[in-house]
Amino acid sequence: MKEAVENLYRKQLNNWELAANNYKALALVKTKQVDVDGWKYLVQFNPARIVSSSAKIDPQSIKERKCFLCREHLPAQQEGLSFGEHYTILVNPFPIFPKHLTIPDNRHLPQRINGRIGDMIDLAKELDDYILFYNGPKCGASAPDHMHFQAGSKGFLTLESEWKFKKAGTIVAYKEAILTYLNDTSRATLVIESTQREDAITLFGTVYDALPSTEGEEEPMMNILTWYEAGKWIICVFPRKKHRPACYFAEGEENILLSPASVDMGGVFITPLEKDFIKITAENVKEIMKEVSLSNEEFHEVRQLIKERL
């Protein structure tokens, strides 16, 4: 599968001008580093991501546009690889990572992780030089009406190298899986480590059931990062309480067009506007993380619920 994906990249960048130009443009993307209470964040100025960051996801807007992940609406130049019974691996033409994939379901079904974490970890094992990510329907997904995962090159997200050194404690263990949480005051993060697929799925189900849900919503708000290394799955779950921070809607100098999703939660803030890249500070990053994540008190309650349910 990995060789087939590499071949797909080469073919698409040779035959699809839009994708080729956007991947070339990554070499010119500006980045800067900020430190938030000992955690490293990168801020990336990536103008091509304006489409995703400013996406209208209200029911009326979704109803009025064609679904860009449905096969019949894909660009004529876009090709894909089948995965399992229901997914197609596509090259993302608006990349954040050096290699960036979108993996939609072949059916037009809503963005929901319940019952699909097994698919996600299977993809992570098959594509073990990538990190898989899932954005909840109100946590950064620009297509909340069509189920999809994304994948990006390993070694890009700062959390990937930092998490194992900053564990705050163990919550529960289940057979060959363990659930810990990180020592981070502005970003609530749960981490599942498992050498066994079914144990990881069971433990994730316990986490899912313990997360707070809003009345009328079909899924608790969350982002997920998953990767496979050294015979073990790592699943980072970021419980959320808000889709977009106040600065997204503010006017004038207070405005920062940033809609956090899995990549941002993983330590790389994507700013499609140069004005925001220039002015954003560590304090802004901290405020945004605190605003969209569970509070320390809410996060403590979730951890207690998990202990009680397993």
From TrEMBL:
Residues in GDPGP1-like C-terminal domain copies: 232-308
Primary enzyme class: transferase
Q: Note the Pfam families from the entry.
A: DUF4922, GDPGP1_C
Q: Which GO MF terms does the UniProt record name? A: GDP-D-glucose phosphorylase activity; guanyl-nucleotide exchange factor activity; hydrolase activity; nucleotide binding
Which Gene Ontology cellular-component terms appear in the entry? cytoplasm
What is this protein's function per UniProt?
A: Specific and highly efficient GDP-D-glucose phosphorylase regulating the levels of GDP-D-glucose in cells.
Protein name, entry field: GDP-D-glucose phosphorylase 1
